[in-house]
Amino acid sequence: MKRKFHKILIANRGEIAVRIIRTAQKMGIRTAAVYASDDAGSLHVALADEAFLLDGSTLSETYLNQQKLVQFAKEAGADAIHPGYGFLSENAAFAALVEANCLAFIGATPEQISLMGEKTQAIDFVKELGVPVIPGVRGAVSDIIRDISGLEFPLLVKAAAGGGGKGMQIVEEASGLPLALQQAQRQAHEYFGNGELFVEKYLAQARHVEVQLMGDGNGNAVHLFERDCSLQRRYQKVVEEAPAPNLTDETKANLHQFALQIAKASKYRGAGTIEFLVDERENCWFLEMNTRLQVEHPVTEAITGLDLVEWQIDIAAGNGLPLKQDEIQACGHAIEVRICAEDPQHQFVPSSGTISAVQFPDNVRWDSFVGAGSQLSPAYDSMLGKLVVHAASRRQAIADMSQALYLHFLGGIKTNQSFLKILTADDAFRSMKIHTKYIEQKLPDLLQELEDTRGVISPAVPAIAYILHHFYEETTDENKFGFWRLNQAFELDVDGKICQINVRKHKKDYLFFIKNEPLAVNRVFYNNNCVSFNLNGKKQDVFWIEKENLTEIQYQTFRFELKSKQVPGQVSLNRQSSKLNGELQSRIVADLFGKVIDVFVAAGDKLIKGQNLLVIESMKTEFTIQSPVDAVVKTIHVTKGKIVQDKEILVDLESQ
Predict the structure, then answer these.
(1) For 7-106, CATH number?
(2) Catalytic positions, written as ranges
């Protein structure tokens, strides 16, 4: 039945909620948002026509509370619910509940979600269609251990009812299987409400290639080409691009055909993605189907010029497929990177804090939910947004992404931008000689390159930007540099190293003398938290924020901390010293914020170096804290379920 929705409730949060709201507004559809208390300041709440508070402190009480979501949709007078991705987007029971309450579910049918969301059923279904699959077994932990004898190691363990990398682990030998199954089962229960697992043969050198589908629910379907998502870390996609490079037309045609077979045979409704593994010889294996919109859908939108959320809404309203297959064209190349609140120079631990500034270049797409003042919560994924570029060629898209990463700024927190810059400049990525384990295998080299690149950056540009930020102002008095007279000497502390700078006017330039080397600066321009200037004829873009007793500068994606006794409020910094140096040998201190999900030791236990103490979950990632030395547990300051803050004391140790 064809109809038009007047209001949609979005059963999600973050950037996907913002994404859906923007399309709904474009279509003239009103929106209702839901939010947990720690999301009250999120952009999706501000953009929606109305918003409902989800009482509670856990996901099961808030974004996974099916009854409450449906209740709010009915109270809002909504026609439909859009689940976004993650959370309940692939929950067949939720889709059925929505439809049982006379609301449209903007997604696949409950039966399709059940069929394709459960991995073994999905594999059995596609095998009947002649689609090649990877051998594996499924079930509870005891079932898998009993039936595993027919498979060769290494094996991949994953949740049967979910995706997104949750619960996925590679097991190299039989001795590691029980623990991997236990950990995967716990995550499967937590994230998907279903502890069933799937174990399959692990393909070490394969690429991850997926086909975007749209089906009308009546047996008609089209593909919107393919994406490569091979660059992954901890089974989370890091970089995505469309179309997939370095595949033959024959391989692409096979992938499209396999995907359409599945969609048409299941009479698929809405947006879906068929994921494949493709080996070095371009053999293809069905991996899974995601019965929802994907995080990486913007690259498909970029090359096709289509709005996939608009298609979802039209299909759910009974209006069929907007275009036929031969009417859909791919143009150019698109690349997306996921900007995450994590510190790549410190084992990618999640970054906490308040975002104090957001800037990005005009010629890119930035899908996000954060703004100046956004407070990050450890309860959710670390992804803050997606930076997307579209160009005529892959080569140009890579160049544009490099520039976009330089000109993107999220002040107040650490992000993975510098790592993404190194990764997208890597020769293997540029030549597309990568696979799903590439980052893991090359991580030490990539991190070393990150350190080397950071180490050779001259402090001159951050130092000049600091002076321009604090002391420069446009003036017609040639004897003045802001409120300091020219020929002024500046002494700056740049990351703990003293930098002496003298400034004087020379014709139309300011000359900055650093180690007696003159650097000519002109064409100074300010844009919010960015100061741009020409340095010896080359344009520089530098970002800044003020933090307690110092100024943080971002230059070429790297962060620098600067201070000066000539800036009020930064004088006392030189007197600061660490108060914990003497105690750290006997204390385990949290270096991230999050929730304690398991404690393995008790007071009085004797430990060996490297022994697991506890597990902290932060931004949907588990971090195992280990003993740094042989010791005895003196005191445990945390319990299972406790929320810990950065630098909080976890465990006291004493010598054996």
Answers:
(1) 3.40.50.20
(2) 292
